[in-house]
Amino acid sequence: VMTRNIELAVVAGDGIGIEVVEQGLAVLDAALATTDVTVTTTPFNLGAQRWHATGETLTDDDLAAIRTHDAILLGAIGDPSVPSGVLERGLLLKLRFALDHYVNLRPGKLYPGVKSPLAEPGEIDFVVVREGTEGPYVGNGGAIRVGTPHEVANEVSVNTAFGVERVVRDAFARAQARPRKHLTLVHKHNVLVHAGHLWRRTVEAVNADFPDVTSDYLHVDAATIFLTTNPSRFDVIVTDNLFGDILTDQAAAITGGIGLAASANINPDRTAPSMFEPVHGSAPDIAGQGKADPTATVLSVAMMLDHLGLPVEAARVEAAVAADLVERGGRVRSTTEVGTALADRVRG
Ligand code: NAI
Ligand code: MG
């Protein structure tokens, strides 16, 4: 019998990150219990605590050690005691850029039993393919005369033909594998003419290689309207780093909230480990109280299983979540109660 071991880097991080990752790992164990796949976890102490203790965010040694793993499970990073931007840029974005996570996948799915704030949500089942390594998030910019009336502050959006084509190609492939086979490009090419037309031309050109996929285009402002009035119209959305960040929070809101929203930072070429994390942050307002919903992390674990070539186990985890959500109603359960219920369902 061929056995296989998954080397998993675990960055639980701060606040509720620690609580939800514990439950995510319990469900992972349950999913693999009946297989010949084992997991070895390596915890990495990264985040606010480490920064306070050593002033470090992510060292070259940390990065080299993380690279040797098959995947990364991340909880959440951030604390009010750390100045805004230090951990986001120095840790989270650094991981995504260094490990070439150019596909940031965020499903927007309204599960049966989950209440949407929309009066008539209809069926919601789309996925946002957000570019992860370019756009305005690369840190190409700077400021001079800071704090004076003559301050100049620039953030440059970087869009390369190479970077746009690879993520657009990935998005078309995902659209082709879905029943509706539809792709929507979201940008703002009437104003951001340089980047916008590169994206538009790239989608048109790559579409020729995926003739069975239909595509359309929306300006980002119109996309926010349709996400509210007719989210069923979306199947695969491809967009840049900033628009994707914003649209996926809206997507989380209309599909039942931040406690359910999963994400994957994927390196499709597999030259470095991909990273799986809930969309939410460290929630300092409820941290340490056992109130955090671990479901988003568990769904991120399902995405990880899928990426690691274990689609049957991924489907079992997602089915366990779906079944739990149907029965959940308005009941208040602790982090551990939800995690245990999901792990029990996965075990069957
Ligand atoms: P947040 O997502 O941590 O919290 C927003 C609200 O949602 C809070 O009221 C929180 O209690 C609630 N919430 C979040 N996750 C929940 C869960 N699983 N179950 C139940 N309720 C949940 O966003 P916020 O407050 O803006 O940021 C807090 C810290 O997290 C900041 O330091 C921020 O920079 C960081 N952050 C980190 C992210 C990451 O690690 N990827 C993503 C977003 C924020
Ligand atoms: Mg965000």
| CATH architectural group of the largest domain | 3-Layer(aba) Sandwich
CATH T-level fold name of the largest domain: Isopropylmalate Dehydrogenase
Low-confidence stretches: none
List the bound ligands. 1,4-dihydronicotinamide adenine dinucleotide, magnesium ion
How many structural units, i.e. domains? 2
Beta-strand content bin: 15-25%
Intertermini distance? 24 Å
Strand order of the largest sheet: 2-1-3-12-11-4-5-10-8-9
Catalytic activity: (2R,3S)-3-isopropylmalate + NAD(+) = 4-methyl-2-oxopentanoate + CO2 + NADH
Keywords: Amino-acid biosynthesis, Branched-chain amino acid biosynthesis, Cytoplasm, Leucine biosynthesis, Magnesium, Manganese, Metal-binding, NAD, Oxidoreductase
Pfam families: Iso_dh
EC number: 1.1.1.85
Question: What does this molecule look like?
Answer:
The protein is α/β, with parallel strands linked by helices and 348 residues long. The chain has two domains: 1-103 and 261-348, Isopropylmalate Dehydrogenase, CATH 3.40.718.10; 116-255, Isopropylmalate Dehydrogenase, CATH 3.40.718.10. 41% of the residues lie in helices and 20% in strands. The protein has eleven helices and twelve strands. A ten-stranded mixed sheet has the order 2-1-3-12-11-4-5-10-8-9, sandwiched between helices. A two-stranded antiparallel ribbon has the order 6-7. Helix 1 (16-32) packs across helix 10, helix 5 packs across helix 6 and helix 10 crosses helix 11 (335-347). The chain is globular and about 50 Å long. The model has no long low-confidence stretch (mean pLDDT 96). The structure holds 1,4-dihydronicotinamide adenine dinucleotide and magnesium ion.
